[in-house]
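Deliverable D4.2, example record:
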Amino acid sequence: MTGIPSTTRRRLAHRFAALLGLVLAGCLFATLPARAAELPIVAPAMECGQLLGVDFNDTEGAPFRLDTAAVVPAGAGVGQAYCRVTGNIAAQVHFEVHLPVAGWTQRFAMSGCGGYCGAVSVPAQLAEGFGCMRFESGEMVVASHDAGHVRKTSAATPNTPGPFADGLWAAGNPDALVDFAYMGVHKATLATKALINAYYGRAPKFSYYIGCSDGGRQGLQEAQRFPKDYNGIIGGSNTNDVTETNTYYHGWNVRKNAAGVVPGSHPSQYLPILTADKLPALHAAVLAACGNMGGGLKDMIQDPRACQFDARSLICAGADGPDCLSPAQADAVNAIWQGPVDETGAHLTAGDMPYGSEAGWVGSMVTAPGVPLSLQTSGDYQFSWDWPHYMASFGAPLDIDVRTLQFTRAEFNKLTRLSQLFAATNPDLRPFAAAGGKLLLWHGWTDTGSTPNHTLNYYDAVRRSMGEAEAAKVMALYMIPGVYHCNGGPQATREDFLTQLMAWVEDGTPPGQVEVRYYSANTIASPVALDRPVWPYPAIATYAGSGDPKHGGSFVKTARPPALTFPDRYEWVGLANYAPGKQLWCRTQGAGMDCGTR
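Output generated by the structure prediction step:
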């Protein structure tokens, strides 16, 4: 550190020591984090247990009461002691907050919830989903919430979906739907800030939101509806059009791979057309055809939009086998890549499964030979089961699920009446920008849970609404090859976006290179198979021509070539909702709900 002022050396040494445990835990990559503001450490103004004696009933917008407040000491799995607080916000939003007992640097991070929510997960969801988490060093208050309801906890019953897709809580409970749509995270934000102010005697200097899937949608709702809640927001695998995703996107996959109903099964179990034993050869063929586009190395697809592959080219010339497809299987594959359409051929979602995602279809809409598609075996079956029945209306259940879903414009209009209650598609981020907010979006190109076109459509709409120059001041996007939904899939991945966001918010440094680790299996406990850099879209990473192709240092930032340049707007019947003034705001009015736009 020769030539660096002594005060700076001490500051860097202190930060490095605080982060060393994270490096050893595999939380950080090989580089020191980008710069962020140097903030004084603030000690608590009261004992943890004293929070139970504070009256929070008058918290504006989020009256709440605490259930517990106790110190969790440092130890195995706990790097820094913290005050763990749980509580309930009117009416039914449950939340949990971890307040460091030492080392708090006036920062706060909220974690969103995924699926249909209904459970609190903090800080594990943050740490597992987003790589390096500074809060593990005691720098940050961290919190999470359940979006205003409690889901079932078991997947044991044969006629109901698993916990992540449980929607029964919405039956006759319109207030819970509004909390799930956008109010729950806002209430949890207000309550957490009130707790911070009470415990430390001051408000947080910087507030961050981190979410993926529905948690990503919640983050976008915060930026669009409550622009002063957060200084920085990370939204990953964003399920912007959640109504359409959890009906048509998932339902289409099941129905197009259904050969017939298993006799006597209840609920219906479908015999699959395409089975898991055919996926390795299918995936290999797609990579062989499209994996070298735009400088790719055939291990992953740089941009699935460039791929034009017909599964019928794999139809068996002779006897059936694992290396070829039957005509029916080829048709099912092509339909899954195409996505749901109505009777006129108009797309009912922004696409479906991207090319290159085939290895991730197992457990979604593809099962092993002899295993029917059902609520126990298919994630797509589960997610398209409760939403159209319980969550598409404030009124009585609609008696529609994946088995009875009709791919017609009339039924689409019926099931999307509340779409703009849930959708996070308002492209006017000027209020968020005026408050100094920064939005960092990311999506895996091979996401099997939420089409990457969701995020690209929003990115495009913001740039059209605000202008490219102004949009760049408030929003950045990373599109990551080979990454599945929320870093999951056959090959788990991890990356650190929080450090980039903090440097942007606190130091004015725009987001830059991020290293993505690809593990050998679907767990971060497995060995790292390779790492690869990614830069803000539309730049891509290309192999430099020498060096280990499994090492990120062998890749360079490259402008997107014409072969990988496409319109970022995917045309589908719901695209008109990507405009200001479309979102619904609802509140209880007598025995019903009063909804309107603003």
